[in-house]
């Protein structure tokens, strides 16, 4: 659980997208195009620019992307943007906007967007090659023509940012996957590449389980095209085909931006209009019944296994077992006020502060106590996959009957299955559905809310 991946690069794409929005909106104030409603136009172009970008994969420029692959992205983006630009003039009837002025605006933002796109592309390459920044430590399992070619690509292209560390040969007398796993953990390896042709199904399954349970990225080099699947992420490193086992939707910059925006807006509204008056009320009730702090803070595992302080309204009398002993039915530590706020889930409300600060999300896998996480890792396979996204106040498992106390191994196994399904199938509509079901469950009541 101590492994922490340095994924600051996840902020690069949202930042680039934000600057592009500044360019297309700022240019409307530089190039006079006689708009009747400036704010409506800026809102219109911002939303549709993001939609076009998603459909066009405009920001899917990876460390191994070639410059020749960027040019078609730019051309398609500008063509589609020009279409929606002229569509606005016709749909919203802008008689004062001249076609020449619009053409000047389009040419101006095209030059700026293209210049900025290539600037960031080459800047990141220099950053990786010269300063060794934005890097990924990698190993390769297997020794054949394709693995040798891939290793050469890593070594010959320092601008990709892949730091090749070791090559494990299946044919070596002392080879074992356990030895490979120990090396990965001891050297904080980020990505594992392996040749499908050289490993048995049992070995592949062990690699998959290890990468899932230790938050490592696993990619494999196919021996033939029969293994290609639409459920796998397929990409080329020069001429070497590489497949990723799991594509996590929320790792896509646009999806991450949408979810974070939803979290910020929702949490801000709750803090301003609910917690502003609810907190002093519950604080008064808690203090009347028992001495101690109003808020209960507990260290839990969040994104990438990082620890954070999860907030709750205190529902128990102050005791020394809060970090080791999970609340059970008819737990004597729970106060009278605590029973009420736990039954109605009001004790979870301070976690909106966690959402606002970025430690949590409205919807996601529920974070567990540190001591319980260590236990659950042994009981539920792929438990660590839950930590690929931020933990949530509520989640798919919770609205599907797996909230509260884990009474047996099947409870945590099924909870993990629901969490992984959510991670691999996230959508804003799914989040909204879970929020609505959570709200309804507060009034219907939940037998495991104690």
Automatic annotation (TrEMBL):
Q: PANTHER family per the record?
A: COLANIC BIOSYNTHESIS UDP-GLUCOSE LIPID CARRIER TRANSFERASE, UNDECAPRENYL-PHOSPHATE N-ACETYLGALACTOSAMINYL 1-PHOSPHATE TRANSFERASE-RELATED
Quote the protein name from its UniProt record.
Answer: Putative colanic acid biosynthesis UDP-glucose lipid carrier transferase
Q: Which Pfam families match?
A: Bac_transf (PF02397)
Give the originating organism: Mariniflexile fucanivorans
Q: Does the keyword Phosphoprotein apply?
A: no
Topology in membrane: Multi-pass membrane protein
Query: Where does the sequence pass through the membrane?
Result: 12-33, 39-58, 70-89, 101-124, 264-286
Into which family does the record put it?
Belongs to the bacterial sugar transferase family.
Q: Which UniProt keywords apply?
A: Membrane, Transferase, Transmembrane, Transmembrane helix
Which GO molecular function entries does the Swiss-Prot or TrEMBL record give?
A: phosphotransferase activity, for other substituted phosphate groups
| InterPro entries, per database record | Bact_transf (IPR003362), EPS_sugar_tfrase (IPR017475)
| GO CC, one annotated term | membrane
State its location(s): Membrane
Domain of life of the native organism: Bacteria
Q: Where is the Bacterial sugar transferase domain?
A: 259-443
Major localization class: membrane
